[in-house]
Amino acid sequence: MEILDILIIGAGPIGLNCALEAKKNNLNYLIIEKGTIVNSLYNYPLYMKFFSTADKLEIAEIPFISAAPKPGRQEALEYYQGIARQKNININLYEKVLNVSKNENIFEIETSKSKYAAKNVIISTGFYDIPNLMNIPGENLKKVKHYYSEPYPYAQQKIVVIGSSNSSVDAALETYRKGAEVTMIIRNSEISQSVKYWVKPDIENRIAEGSIAAHFNSELIEIKEYSVVFKDENGNINEIENDFVLAMTGYLPDFNFLKNSGVDLQGECLNPFYNSETMETNVPNLYLAGVVCGGKDTHLWFIENSRIHAEMIIRNILMK
User: Fold this and answer.
1) In 106-125, which positions are buried (b, 16+ CB within 10 angstroms) versus exposed (e)?
2) Who contacts 303 (Cβ-Cβ below 8 Å, separation ≥6)?
3) How far apart are CA 7 and CA 241, in angstroms?
4) Residue 275 and residue 201: Cα distance in Å, rounded?
């Protein structure tokens, strides 16, 4: 079996950046990706606009040309998938990594299709695959959606949106404008301060005028086939008619995969251990890159501030 210099798990923007850095330094590498190239971006809402400008989403100093100040999902897909084609990056798609183990100084990687050996492994799997569940009765009903793509299926329906983050606000505004009756149920006392600055006044005005109902300091406690039950800020139990629940409660990294790979997880947020100067974990030659580094704190890392991980990792590998 050929022994790779580096096996990269995940073909998101940071995984691609790691591959480009490895290629630049003449290292033998392969990316294994369970879906398509930049699979998480592919599953974003169809009309999503990034908070960042195009230049902050660039990798490997390859210009990201966008007609709008804030690029959207389709432009990002074209950019990253275009890089993969133009640079002929070595990627195996629709292949899931099942297990990473170490035999002396060589990693043995088992996937849904094959087995591989590598001197170094980079885990760059992001966090978009596992919904952060509410763990309440009825959450498994078909009417409950943890992923939102577009508003059209919800026209003329009674929608409950959970949360007040960017994804929650986008879903509430878009479905409202396609004729849905929207109710937001929000644990906090206000719309999140992290909501895109050009969107936040829009949702606050829609709530103020009564176009979108919002219950702050409230909690959904049960989902029924034709209604939902929630506790309001006064502790009262309320039940309202409902057709769909958009549970925009966030997503988590695959902690079981990290743990089974030998990575130490620390504290309540299950922050994976890594050296902040090299991105190497407690397992020698096993590295983390991108948003997976944040554990449950998924807001800490994103494309623009984790692009540097690739250079840090490859530099450390070359020094050994």
Assistant:
1) ebebebeeeebebbbbbbbb
2) 13, 14, 52, 56, 57, 59, 290
3) 50
4) 40
Distance CA 308, CA 222 (A): 43
Residue 185 β-bridge partners: 162, 215
* Residue range 145-176, pLDDT digits in tens: 999 999 999 999 999 999 999 999 999 999 99
Give yes or no for a contact between 156 and 180, defined as CB atoms under 8 angstroms apart.
Answer: yes
What is the mean predicted confidence (pLDDT) over 84-93? 97
pTM: 0.91
Query: For residues 110 and 98, is the Cβ–Cβ distance under 8 A?
Result: yes
Q: Which of 58, 101, 104 is nearest to 83 (CA)?
A: 58
Whether residue 129 has pLDDT greater than 90:
no
Per-position b or e across 131-143, b if 16+ CB within 10 A of its CB: bbebebebbeeeb
SS3 87: coil
- Quick one: how many helices (H) and strands (E) in the chain? 8, 19
Q: Phi-psi category of 21—alpha, beta or left, where left has phi over 0 and alpha has psi -120 to 50?
A: alpha
Enter the DSSP assignment of 47: T
Nearest CA to 71 out of 54, 90, 56, 85 is that of 54
- Stretch (H or E) spanning 175: helix 166-177
Distance CA 102, CA 285 (A): 10
Q: How far apart are CA 63 and CA 48, in angstroms?
A: 21
What is d(CA 168, CA 222) in angstroms, rounded to the nearest whole number? 19
Could you report the per-residue pLDDT of 169-205, keeping only the tens digit for each? 999 999 999 999 999 999 999 999 989 888 999 999 9
Helix, strand, coil percentages for the chain (3-state, nearest 5): 25, 25, 50
Consecutive H or E run containing 311 = helix 308-319
Q: What is the pLDDT of residue 308?
A: 96
Residue 225 pLDDT > 90: yes
Pull the structure tokens for residue 215: 């219950």
